[in-house]
Amino acid sequence: MGETLKVGVLGAKGRVGSTICDGVEAAEDMELVARIDDGDSLENLVSAGAEIVVDFTHPDVVLENLEFLVGHDIHAVVGTTGFTEERLEKVRGFLSKHPGTGVLVAPNFAIGAILMMRFAQQAAKYYPSTEIIELHHPRKADAPSGTARLTAELVGQARKDAGLGEQPDATSTELDGARGAEIEGVPVHSIRLTGLVAHQEVLFGTEGETLTIRHDSMDRTSFVPGVLLGVRSIKAHPGLTVGLDNFMEF
Amino acid sequence: MGETLKVGVLGAKGRVGSTICDGVEAAEDMELVARIDDGDSLENLVSAGAEIVVDFTHPDVVLENLEFLVGHDIHAVVGTTGFTEERLEKVRGFLSKHPGTGVLVAPNFAIGAILMMRFAQQAAKYYPSTEIIELHHPRKADAPSGTARLTAELVGQARKDAGLGEQPDATSTELDGARGAEIEGVPVHSIRLTGLVAHQEVLFGTEGETLTIRHDSMDRTSFVPGVLLGVRSIKAHPGLTVGLDNFMEF
Amino acid sequence: MGETLKVGVLGAKGRVGSTICDGVEAAEDMELVARIDDGDSLENLVSAGAEIVVDFTHPDVVLENLEFLVGHDIHAVVGTTGFTEERLEKVRGFLSKHPGTGVLVAPNFAIGAILMMRFAQQAAKYYPSTEIIELHHPRKADAPSGTARLTAELVGQARKDAGLGEQPDATSTELDGARGAEIEGVPVHSIRLTGLVAHQEVLFGTEGETLTIRHDSMDRTSFVPGVLLGVRSIKAHPGLTVGLDNFMEF
Amino acid sequence: MGETLKVGVLGAKGRVGSTICDGVEAAEDMELVARIDDGDSLENLVSAGAEIVVDFTHPDVVLENLEFLVGHDIHAVVGTTGFTEERLEKVRGFLSKHPGTGVLVAPNFAIGAILMMRFAQQAAKYYPSTEIIELHHPRKADAPSGTARLTAELVGQARKDAGLGEQPDATSTELDGARGAEIEGVPVHSIRLTGLVAHQEVLFGTEGETLTIRHDSMDRTSFVPGVLLGVRSIKAHPGLTVGLDNFMEF
């Protein structure tokens, strides 16, 4: 492995940030050189020699953080939300004068969710039938989940690209809602159950066989392996990258 | 085991009937003494010494068959559909003069489906959350399936009896249908997928844990063990019995 | 619901104890009147008016605790381990002079695990084939888990009681270990996977159909509903009760 | 879709062959022009105008069949077993003089099994833990199944290529066989259950999340979509192709 990566964390005292700090400290190929939170100066990152900084902070401050980081040729792995195309354009502006620096902005760091979506896209064209079941705790406000919507859109597009028509379905008597919500021709079913965390199944069926891809996110630490993958990969990817899947091989 | 049961089958040439004949012949404690189909005389059952007769025929002829069987003190295991309360009353009439003879009329011979429903009833009161997912081939006309409806009614009633209120569900933004159909307060989701046969999951959730009961019916032979259970039990249960669950211990 | 139960917790500052305190406080029909830990006097339970006390402490102190509680006619729900028959006999001794007081000692408060085992016992006699898969985090020292062993013993006994013989298995070429460990004639398979918590599936198979009972324990809070069930039930069960299943209806 | 493919089937009266005939007849873009079985002349294929012939026959006759087919510039899709490297070399010999003709030889036509193996290979490097559970009917002679062995080898190789070490496993007390058979460092567990057909799960785990890929083969028709895919693809792939995965995009 050789080299040890010097990593700083912004928002280090928050729930997410402290989990990332634990993950960096447990990684044999990384050293946590700076924990920064509200009130700490970003200069500490420079003096600590941070090469890569993880930012799970707030939309209000993330652009300022990135301007500083890129300006000091520090690579960034960003899980902060709220990145519109306009905001991404600003990041590209920062990077234009620092062509060797990399910034990863990713809406989803769960490796399993990314693989599930990719595999679903790959499988879609071979199956006349596809449905999605997502299962979450009952405190969730939206149904279906964002991941389920995105999966349905990707699968629906793959079906279209392959020239598949409507899914076979002889339902003539339906109790309202039984067949789920339809997104791009793909039925999506949302389960809300005390005790669950975040889970999704994509089911494919053809003559005599089915294929099921299931992702279970058991707790909040599930984004850590994805963040570490981002940290390990960012130096080799200068410029702006949107989506962790760009650092994955399939 | 001792005794060998002498069994006759009505509708023996049909798909279902011939599967039952195979099952009876494979059972070590049974002897198939008569295969009867259209055009054969019921008297053959008597001359063959049938003690128990299985009837998977047609609503048009089943009452006539039962009158004959009971009149000759032959026990009957009946999977033929269409038994209204009025029809059951007629069977009770046949039996009134033959108190030692038994007739089992059952809408469902899949032992696993019966166990699933029973367990779901037993578990219901311990869980704030319950949902049902049923999965079938896409040629099915009704959604949800009859078994899913019945399960939801049983579970919903058990929840009521236990004083459980509404299920926790913070959904505030729902794409129409995502949360399924509601039956007695229990969400039911219907999946239709090429390659599937008949499957159902009942999911229960409470703080930090879930319990799932799943029944998979892989092919048409799945009713055979239930029919054989009926054949083995009927002699000990004179009179009319409705539902195979009455012959099962839980 | 009427009455509010006044509950005290021993070992209230430990991880388990504080989780129980949270659970009691969240329950509408309970009031947490005392949190006791090392150094606190048990007399506080009396002055606080505790009717029922939960003890998840240590084998070294639990008998002393119970002598005090029973002596003051306070009911006890006990998850502390290490109860041999000799120790249970001592508890019976305490209770002999307080016939109206109840003590529940339970090795397992996960309601789902108890239901899974009960349902597995009930289903066993209807299926020629039964296997158990248990899945845990890779830090677990024993394989199979204690729950899997107990389930296999219960299912194996139920098979014997029903006169079932050996399970069908034509395996003639086996890579060592592929068919799992055998406990009372039931194959048990142990999966160890990062990211898992504690999970178990019991699979039953007969001609054309299978039945699966699955329990997923997602996090440490999964014993709370069982403890609360114990608290709600103990007043109606004077004397010593071993096992939470005695307070459950099936 | 345009063009209709003219297809012949060898071994058309066998169980497999007749299922393929049904599949070809049901396909809108194919026409079944010849059903050949023992005693029929292969010349019938030529006179019927077959462009592509499916061969699920016997190792004793398949080379003769292929020599005839290639000699008449008829493409072949072959599921017959027993193809050693020596036999494949003979097929290459036939093809050397017919560069426009294609022959597909595939050991496995179940698309879902191929996708499962491919996805498992792709996912392997992202997960410290991987285990395989395969589930079959109890008449199966070998444990683990051939597909499970192959999957374990592919996953084990992918782990090695990614520099992953041994899987985490703190098991210190094991009942013999509980942790399964080990193939290339991957534990494999074999379930044998009446009622099952052919099923496999590949489980991956990392911090806080798991990914599961499951393939269920419900009945014998599950190879048909793969055979049809071979028929649709073979004209564009002159020469010898070994493995249906070469005609699939991932």
Strand order of the largest sheet of chain A: 2-1-3-4-5-13
CATH-assigned homologous superfamily of the largest domain in chain A: NAD(P)-binding Rossmann-like Domain
Poorly predicted ranges of chain A: none
What is the CATH C-level name of the largest domain in chain A?
Alpha Beta
Taken as a percent bin, the fraction of beta residues of chain A is: 25-35%
Compute the average pLDDT of chain A.
96
- Fraction in helix of chain A: 25-40%
Shape of chain A: elongated
* Count of the domains of chain A: 2
The number of helices of chain A is 7
Give a description of the structure.
4 copies of one chain form a homotetramer. Helix content of chain A is 33%, strand content 28%. The radius of gyration of chain A is 21 Å and the shape is elongated. The longest helix of chain A is centred in the middle third of the chain and has 16 residues, at 146-161. The mean pLDDT of chain A is 96. Chain A has 7 helices and 13 strands. By secondary structure, the first copy, chain A, is an alpha/beta fold. Chain A has 2 domains: 5-105 and 221-247, Rossmann fold (3-Layer(aba) Sandwich); 111-218, Dihydrodipicolinate Reductase, domain 2 (2-Layer Sandwich). In chain A, helix 1 packs across helix 7 (224-233), helix 3 runs parallel beside helix 4 and helix 5 (111-124) runs parallel beside helix 6. The first copy, chain A, has helices spanning 15-26, 43-47, 59-71, 85-96, 111-124, 146-161, 224-233, and strands at 5-10, 30-36, 52-55, 75-78, 102-105, 129-136, 142-143, 173-174, 181-183, 186-192, 198-206, 209-217, 239-242. In chain A, the strands form 2 sheets. Chain A has a 6-stranded parallel sheet with strand order 2-1-3-4-5-13, with helices on both faces. A 5-stranded mixed sheet of chain A has the order 9-10-6-11-12. Chains C and D meet through strand 6, strand 7, strand 8, strand 9 and strand 10 of C and strand 6, strand 7, strand 8, strand 9 and strand 10 of D.
